[in-house]
Fold each of these.
Amino acid sequence: MRFGILSLIGLIVGAFGAHFLLQDRGYVLISFLGWNVEMSVPGLALMFVFLYLVLRLGLRILRAPGQIGDALEAHRTRRSGSRLARGLIHMTEGDFRRGERLLTDRLKDNDAKVVNYLIAARAAEAQGSIERRDEWLRLAGASDPKAEIAVLLTQAELEIKRGEPGAALVTLARVEKKKPHLGGTLALRAEALLQLRDRAGIADILPELARAKLDPDRHANILARALEAMRSEQRFDRAALKAVWSPLPLALRRRPRLIRARALLLDRLGRGEEALKSVAAALKRDWDRELINAYGEIRSSDSLKQLQRAEAWLKQRPEDPALLIAAARLCIANELWGKARSYLETTLAIAPEPAAYVLYGELLERLGELDLAARAWRSGLRLTTREAGRLPAPKAPVVSEA
């Protein structure tokens, strides 16, 4: 549009100029250092146009090497981006070998080769090649010294996935020396300590981990697992739990799995009433299976009242498997054996699962029905191992034979 308007203006100006120049072409005299140049006005105009074109051509020639270099660089970048994209696609599809090859092909032309090396290390890890994994990590660190922290964190993450938590802790210690108090470092340390089942180490870092800046989902998952591990750590008392819970933002403190982990810790610390109150309040906001399971596991001073509340919920949700199991647990706590058996057989008929079969077997053992108890445990084991071909899991509860 702009070019069209300028062309139209040029035509109009040219037409008027040509009209006047045809009547009188004018006369121009240029005198310089004893040289005289005579020409008409149109000749002068043509000379200026010629000089302008020569100047533009010269500038183009001078800029050509740089422009060619930029074009080649853009082409290399596009090709590199294409290889990265295709490599990631193959990794997502599970073809790690081809993905690794694409990610590491012709990296000398790639300024961002550290990214390719890091992803290639993940591909090598997925194929079980520790030597190639470590070589790609080494090349990633050598290609960009500024990426050393990212390389070390990737190395620690892959070591944890490989089942090498001790090596990961050594790697993370190097990160801590260079850049302390990183949220990512804390999260990976917690993962390594959980893998090692080092409850004392987890207890030591929990307060700092609670204050870390992490993705909310990852943060909640790691904290919940850490708190679950603390249930068997006698050093972890009410004050330690408060030091972890208080700094958490409200959004995290409302996560069902975290509420469950805290409630079961409170129950272990003899504060069952406080635990029940938190779980019941959470269930009003979010009817969650993990919270229902926690409700059935907590032991309060009035377990009969606790059962009555569960049975009131059952009137509204009579086929909720988790609620039926929770009610069965509370019946066992109140020595209501027949009721507990009824609830468990109902839930096994609706949705058989290993936990229900285990609890059912324990109840039958307590009632002296040892053969049926063994059959219940075998049924639960079959569901756990999922050997559907040779040992199909039953769809109905184990019942006594007439």
Amino acid sequence: MTRAEFLVRTRALTGFVPLVKQLGGDVAALLAAKGLTVRELEDEQFSLPLRAFAELISDAATALNKPDFGILLAARQNLSVLGPIALAAQHAGCVGDALELVGRYMPYHSPGLTLTVSTEGDDAVLRLRHNLILQGEVRRHVTELPYAVSLAFMRMISRREGRHWQLSFQHDSPLSLARYRRLLGCPVALQQAEDSLRFPASLLTLPIDAANRDLQEAAARTVRYLIQRSPLDLGQQVSTLVERSLATGNCTLPVIATQLQMPRHQLQRQLAALGMRFEDIVDNLRRERLQTLLPHSQIPLTEVALQLGYGDPSSLTRACHRWFGQSPKALRRAALPGMQQGTPSAP
């Protein structure tokens, strides 16, 4: 996976809309600048480029004159931003196991973020790293946000206040150290060699009150299934956008590339590197949607054609012959199992 492909699920923006509104900002304008809408943020399965996510947080901080915006947003979040990963972590046997689970399944939430924990003497060191080159305030906000969420999570599962834990950041900041301490409740050091959260290593073996091996295993199986079913990569993102755009009749490579905020030729090259073609993604999704729509006889074939993004029924007829060797009418008359057994011809 190349850096341009890193994505993050919109759960990471939990609390963004109400916070911006509370601070008197224009949510729609901030989102529109990144090609996003409030409706997309409400879709838990939608995702956006990690860079766009980072820039959005920074843009909001600038527009609202709130240099602590990332931390304020973190205060409105908890581990639930990780979706089903949270369930596995909350039912782990001990704090160390919970952190290991979060790190292991982080690719479901964002392949561009890694979490590791190591032991250094009496200290445990939690490190979060975005696999993306970011600079200045964009990097600062997108670093402070997940560390603040992680700090709150550690306090919750350890039942410790963590007043003497140590947060270290590589960046400098317009915020004073006193302001950081009031916001985060622990010492913060700036311009350090690395970003990290240090806490007593003894906490790693601390049992979790809600520990339940059966529930933990069930949640972990769910996460593994979701990672396989809905991988957060460029191909999945293109498929999601194509599926949303089919019925508009304007589902083209330039349109999807614009929504992903990248040049069309770059999108073509990156799909090719994954062994994919835009035309095949569209073709496969049309075929899948056809299998869903055709059994419903109350939907006219002209409407089926429109929902698949075809301008006229004749285009649908040609596609059906190519996929199944039959016309749409013949497929509709046939039983659903027979239709599903059709094998598409080679493109």
Amino acid sequence: MKKVISFLVFLIVSNGFGQSLNRDNIQQFADEYFVESVFTLNEFLQLPNIGSNHDNIEQNLKWCINALKALNFDTAILTSEGVNHLLAEKVYDLKSPTILFYLQIDGQPVDPTFWDQNDPFKPVLKVYDKDEWNIISWENLTKNFNPDWRVFARSASDSKGPAIAFLQALRILNEKGISPKFNIKILLDFQEELGSPTLPELVRNNRSKFNADAMLIIDGTRPPNNQPNLTFGARGIATMRLTVFGADKDLHSGQYGNYAPNPVFSLSRLLGAMKDERGYVLIPGYYDGIELTDDQKTLINSVPDNKEELLATLGIAEPETIGETYQESLQYPSLNIRGLRAAWVGDEVRTIIPSEALAEIDMRLVPETPAERQIQLVTNFIESHGFYIVDGVPSEEERRKFPKLIRVESRIGSRPFRTPLNSKLGNWLGLAMTHVFGEGNYSHMQTTGGSQPIAPFITELGISAISVRIPNPDNNIHAPNENLRLGNFHEGLKMCLGILTQPYD
């Protein structure tokens, strides 16, 4: 019976009686292939995927090539600065437009000792019961499907889960004899978590290979309400490392306390001066160039966020006040202390005055606040607080001459991008999402708080880009116990099926 239904669907679509699969067909196909798709994800997650590990990259590259060749895609390995990327392409109709899809394949490093399972690269299926997550057998999937069950593994959400949802949607259409409504190119990135450092050169050197009418990013987490989501931009990222120096060696706190300055206090005063209690960055010029009109605020705040629910989810009493809402806060650059280090703590604590104190900073950027400018503003601020900046370990002469010594290191990662909410690409995706979920049952955001390495495609190719969001917001990406809710994965299959069969006019 399934084969008869599929054949009838094929006849309808191929004869032009419908421009896209109807909602029932999409639901049917997602249901039919759901279990198989989850087991495919399980298999893929078992390949470690740390972007700095060459063997990891090669294993994942090989798996992806085989998967795409099985779908009759032409594949090519493109190398940039010694790093391999994978480009796949399939032409369905020479007269049709081409959509370029971006898939992230690598994941963040892991410390297995902090995970509630033996190996982060051996996925487990869990159910929430009695205030804790309990492992259940994968065989449960063959009996029924609970949308609140979750797959726990590194990269389950960020971003192998979304990648598999997209590839499985292609497989479904391929096996049903249904062609997407446009030609497809796919770039698979194996170093996104490293900031995709070789991607700008790759795009510059291969413009013709990446040429497309628009770009979709199958990556990123949904907003707190967990509705199916489209996100029209991403903040960029720049990082800084600040090392404040004290004595040229660690000192005994009894012998030299009250005499030798502790660099931790000097660093703490500097960091404390950077932001006020509201979370507002006090570095002069940090927010220059950003102005939100009333109309922009109305569009931005159309996402149905619930402030009280969000505060409860985060476990905080009140938010910082950069912007009047959560969505508005994402339109500004952030300044975050992502790590601190000085001497030892815990069982290894000792009574010393450390010789240095280190702070790691990340700044999420918007188009109005370029990385170079923000880094210089922070550097100027540091100097205005009496610090002398050194290039490395201070020399004896510098130690004798300057009481406040600091080393400032910086790195620029992904650039920000922003696509208008009323763009042609956004309107097309809106039709696809409405077709799948119904009017008002999905959301769109102007920008995400995170970063994506998409700016090179926009600047070099002159195309628009939008991110299709599948994973649940409480997915612990980058942290221990990363997970993907099965209900989100199921919706992801439907989202991809709807998009792939929506004509791009």
Amino acid sequence: MAGHSKWANIKHKKAKEDAKRGKVFTKIIRELVSATKQGEPDPETNPRLRAAVEKALSANMTKDTIQRAIERGAGNAEGGEMDELTYEGYGVGGVAVLVETMTDNVNRTVSEVRHAFTKFDGNLGTSGSVSYLFTKRGEILFDDVSLEDEIMLVALDAGALDIENDGESLLVITEPASFGAVKDALNAAGYESSNAEVTMSPSTTALIDNIEDAEKVMKMIDMLEDLDDVQDVHTNVDFPDEILQQLS
């Protein structure tokens, strides 16, 4: 899974750049509202809300903004109901793609998502066509591999499932429900992650080893992420080092 880890680093870098431009704030607020509506307004007892709060804080959203979104979700105020739908499809080279959306107009959303796939030689699939390739889990990334033993002790004791070391970074893996507790334990022990999120992790990867196809995949992902109704995009793409260097 070394290729996936390297792709994850690019994804995290892109996310930080998007956050600086304020592109992600609307999406995060939607997730905060929805997570609160579907559970308790307390992040300590609502794992999905806790993950959304973590994402908001990592994007430098203010605590006041986060609290207003939670209060909006708890009071079911402002705006109509939003449908949460996941679309599945393939990009060039057999790259599997999951697109998580939140929308008040399903016809608009599916049309825009389909257009992004077809524009870059992909195709929108049916429900279940690629979701079986992904598992929902918490991922906490550290850049210092020399701390593996120390981080492993703290993480496993706090309930982590495993730790992966690809020689460049450490990836602590958790169940979605224990993500917050493991991250808290690592923070309390003085270990600050470079990225932490609950995501969809692929069980297999699709190697894209030519720059033309790699650029199509990246452009498709960018177009999907730029759609207002899209909350997140997950993929199993694996880029070799030489392709990563050309893309970055």
